[in-house]
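Troubleshooting: if your tokenizer reports a length mismatch, compare your output against this known-good record of 345 residues.
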Amino acid sequence: MRINRSLLNWGVFLIALGGIPLAVDQGWLESDIASDLGQLWPLILVGIGLGLILRWTPLSWFGGALVAATFGIILGAAAVSLRDNDLGSIQSIIPAVASTACAGDAVGEATTSEGGIATADDFTAEVTHSCGELQLTRASGATWSLEAQHDADDPPRIEQTEREGMTAGVELSQSADYGVVFLGGRSQSRWDLQVPAEAALRISTTLNAASATIDPGSGPITLVSGTWNASDATVDLADTTAEAAARVDLTLNASDGRLSLPAGDIFAGITLNASSLEVCVPQSAALEVDYTSVLGSDDLDASGLSEVSSGQWATPADADTDGRIVLSVTNTVSSLSLERPEACS
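Known-good structure output:
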């Protein structure tokens, strides 16, 4: 019988993920012990090493299964910690998962430089990045550019997109097809992407065991979307100008994120799965939160909002506000923190 390695690893992961909360509920495992299981994260490195050693043997599956089981145990422990409102444990578990999902922290020695002139009024940047660092900022003019450091066999795929004969965006991905796996070993890569200064931006990111800083500066934005898997990312939109009710769509899976918003008209759809997210919304903005939680934690009751109905929160109706921000949040075994300073920075 031939075993599908991918399905085996996912099966092991799901069994471990559900097994920890079940063991605590049934009294087979103390919750204090479960909350400490995040300290098992070095087994991820052990599993990767075993996978490399046993790669060409009949036991080659074992390393990947060990990594899958460790991920499941750690996230199961995170679920217990969140349910018990033990945020100290969850905050230490999530970065450990993200930082050890790729083997080693060495950066490839090869480099790639490319760029062009954007001639359209809007610009779309679509980026898929695994096992490395991404920094996205505004350029000083109507140009886009990429400076990348990477493995020799993993240069970024770069595709400049056009619309009606004008340069309207760029798509970036990796040559090596890694994705999120339970077994792997590779050098990390660093990408520094600059986008046009005046163009209205549409930014889409997919991060797999990566870290990212997305700071579009003071220019206009239309859309910021992202799917982050075992990653750590910051999106700073505090100085941007929202173009005609800008939209933010983020999905975090076992990730740690920070989102800063400007005063203006913005709709943000956020899905959290075993993750942690800090959201900053300036006090001058009218804020509405449509909130659904399954074993999640939040501080909405301490953010100056009023619960107008079950799962519906909003600023007082008589508040002097500038713009309207709507957050639609689904929180599954995750932590949501909301900040309301005079201005996000």
